[in-house]
Every structure is written in C-alpha cells, then in structure tokens.
Amino acid sequence: MKSFDYLADRLDALAEQHRLRRLVPRNVMGASLLDASCDSLINFGGNDYLGLAANLTTAEIATGSTSSALVCGWTVLHEQLAQRLAVLESTEAAVLFPSGYAACSGTIATLAEPGDLILSDQLNHASLIDGCRLSAAECVVYPHRDFHFVADVLAKQRERFHRVWIVTDGVFSMDGHIAPLVELCDVADRFETHMVVDEAHGTGVLGRSGSGVCEALGVKHRVAIRIGTLSKAVGCQGGFVAGPKLVVDYLINRCRSLIFSTALAPAAVMASMTAIESFERESHRRVRVQRLARELRRRLSLRASCDLEASVPIVPIVLGDDRHTMEVSARLARAGYFVPAIRPPTVPPGTSRLRISLSALHTDAMLDGLIDTLSNLMKRSE
C-alpha cells in the first residue's frame, strides 16, 4: 500500500502556522455548552440566533426520507415547508436542499452557463465560491461590497456575455457586514443582470417578518433568487432556494446537489416548520438578539456601516495574528466563555479574529460578563 506520509507533512505545516483544526466533542445546551472536560461554558460560538435549536419535538416523525427528492423522498411535509418558505420570501416557489452549502453551490453551478458572467463578492461564503468554480461561466471576483467596481466591469464588458449574475451574501458570516443590496440592484437593473443573494445569516433575524436582509432593505421584489438555510436562526438543518417557479422547476430538473442527494429528513422538515411558526409569532426573539448586538458593539466601541448592520448578531474582533487569536480564545474559555478563533483560510491572512455570535437566549448578565472579561484580556495584551 502506498504511503500517505506526505499528508503528515502538510498537517505539521498547518500546526506550525497555528492553523491545525480538530473536531472537539461538545454538548450544546441552550446558551451553554459542555466542552471535552465537561466544563460548562457560555456559548458565543453558535449560529442559534433566535434560541430555537434546543427546542424539542414531540411528534413521531420519520428520521429518514429514504431517497432523493425526485424518487420518493419528497413528502407532504416537504411540500408544506417549501410553500411556507415561498410565502415567507414572497416568491412564486421554493425548494428544499439537504444543506445550505448544497443550495448555494448547486444553484450557482446550475444556472450560470457558458457565455455567462458571474460577479462574486470577494468575501462570499465558500459555498457560493465553489458554485462559481463549478459553473461553466466566466467569473470576476469584485472587491468586498464595491458596487462601483461591479458597475465599471459591466459598463466595459456587458455586451460580451449572454447573462450576468451578481452573487453576494446578504450578511457576511465572518464580518457581520451587510451587502449594499440597494446599490447592487440599481446596477443590476441598469445592465439587465440577475441578482442572487444568500440570506443564510439574515433569515429569521432581519426584516419585519424575519425573511432577511432583502426585506429589511426593501429589495425583495428586486432580488429574484434568494438562497437560505434552516440551520442558523431556524435552528434545524437544511437549505432552500426561493424564486420564480421557472427557476425552481429548472433546479429540480438540473441541479446535481439536489437531484443526487437524499432528501432532507422529515423530522428536520417538521422541526423547521415549527421554528418558522415560532419566529413569526414570537418577534421578541428577533428584537432581543438585535438589541444585544447593538449593545455589544456600543460597549466595545465597534462601528457599523449602518443601523441595520449594528443589529447583526455576528460581531468580529479582528486581532490579526493567528497565535494571539488562539491564545485569547483559550483564555476566554478558561474564564467560562466559548468564543471561537477564526483563522485562515476561513478569513484572509492577517485578519484572524474572535467571532462572537449572539443568541436571544443570552442574558444581560452573560453579555456583561463576556464584555468585562474580554476588556480585561485586551488590556493585558496591549
């Protein structure tokens, strides 16, 4: 048998750079988690923005769908959830995917064809980046949130391409930034291009009804294709695409990440419907997590580009150095707070950071404790 020793060399290189990753068993319980040493930590690392992930389902629902959606894995529950999501997103139709990653990568790879151009934000999620790479279209990566650059490219090159797709996160997962969707939609209208927005970190959190950043910025009717996840504010598992019925029907027939994957488990589908009912009915969850985000930014003197961005429950503290970031994260853990250290390649080199994720389950006392501990650690490291 041939040796895999070359992989050990690569792992050693990652360790020397303080970028080696390992799976660590943890039990998440609401706003807390138990680490491998059974120490209880307040969890500021998950994406359970509305505190719905810990909800228990009592209905006896099947744990497996048995097949892909096109064979016999698409149940009445799947159909009901898809219809519910279409109503939430104010679109003609929606379809479910086994994960948000599958929804993003599969949708871009399927829709963008030879002769097309994709304009993709520099800090888009890996699932969107991989979708661009898998597609047969030409791709231009534009500087983060630079809609002027997008307009300049289209002014010079639009006539070369059949269709153009502007692809962006709505909320950027490692920065908490809001995409300039109004301006991008203006560019899209001017040059007759399609907008595709990933609402992964906006669904349930932003907008009057909780449908996301497109709703919050008033551009739902201008963004034809919106991709979302059920694994963050919804607190479950899976992904979805909402848009025109023609687009959804085409994905059902051509999208490989949908066609060749086992359909989402019925139990997850049922839990997602229950969670969506909860956040539509209990708007106080959304109000609370937005208030916590604004309070944290204010007390840490962190600036946001707009009022909406100040309400995003993703608050990064960029420290730069990989090793230093890991050390501060470890010290926070020893003090009882789980705040993950995010390093390259997840973020660009030199921008390693603590990524604080807030939840409606966090109490004011929890936030006070985190801020005091973090402030003391920052003073010591100066």
Automatic annotation (TrEMBL):
Query: What reactions does this protein catalyze?
Result: 6-carboxyhexanoyl-[ACP] + L-alanine + H(+) = (8S)-8-amino-7-oxononanoate + holo-[ACP] + CO2
What's its EC? 2.3.1.47
Which pathway or pathways does this protein act in? Cofactor biosynthesis; biotin biosynthesis
- Name its co-factor(s): pyridoxal 5'-phosphate
| Keyword terms, alphabetized | Acyltransferase, Biotin biosynthesis, Pyridoxal phosphate, Transferase
GO terms in the biological process aspect are:
biotin biosynthetic process
Q: Which residues form the Aminotransferase class I/classII large domain?
A: 41-373
Q: Which domain of life is it from?
A: Bacteria
One MF term from GO for this chain? pyridoxal phosphate binding
InterPro entries recorded: Aminotrans_II_pyridoxalP_BS, Aminotransferase_I/II_large, AON_synthase_class-II, PyrdxlP-dep_Trfase, PyrdxlP-dep_Trfase_major, PyrdxlP-dep_Trfase_small
Does the UniProt entry include the keyword Acyltransferase?
yes
For this chain, the family text in UniProt reads: Belongs to the class-II pyridoxal-phosphate-dependent aminotransferase family. BioF subfamily.
Question: Subunit notes for this chain?
Answer: Homodimer.
Protein name (Swiss-Prot/TrEMBL):
8-amino-7-oxononanoate synthase
What species was this sequence derived from?
Answer: Novipirellula artificiosorum
**Lineage, highest ranks first:** Bacteria, Pseudomonadati, Planctomycetota, Planctomycetia, Pirellulales
